[in-house]
Amino acid sequence: MGRTIRVEVNGKTHECEVEPRTLLVHFLREELELTGTNVGCETSLCGACTVLIDGESVRACTQLAVQADGCSITTIEGLGSEHDLHPLQQGFWDEHGLQCGYCTPGMIMAAADLLGQNADPSEAEIRTALKGNVCRCTGYHNIVRAVQSAAKRMAGAAS
Hints:
Elements: E1 3-9, E2 12-18, H1 24-31, E3 50-53, E4 56-59, E5 72-74, H2 87-94, H3 104-117, H4 123-129, H5 141-158
Parallel strand pairs: 1-5
Antiparallel strand pairs: 1-2, 3-4, 3-5
Helix pairs in contact: 2-5
């Protein structure tokens, strides 16, 4: 027996029937076909599934879709586009903050939450904010530089 939920995802309202046990990550990927949100550990440890719910980063692998009823969700697809990258996406590109790319959407979404709260974070603050996002490829140095680059780019756009 399903339950009807109404969510805004990347600025578009969706009203869908979901099974009460459906995880948000599966709802986004399978129902809405937003496959940028990755399934990693399914225990909330790796951060590959990070999305923003009402502006705050959340692990979509341990949140039920019904818990998001009435909320506004932003996925990696909602930050920018192929021809108009968000400053974080551009920062990851410019600073080589990715290798395989599997963790990248979650890293970017966690960083978006950080920059939403702190427009000029220190290196230590960036590392603390991203400590719940696992990357097995990069060593994190370029990821930190990518977030710093995005913060500067966003500050420049605001002035």
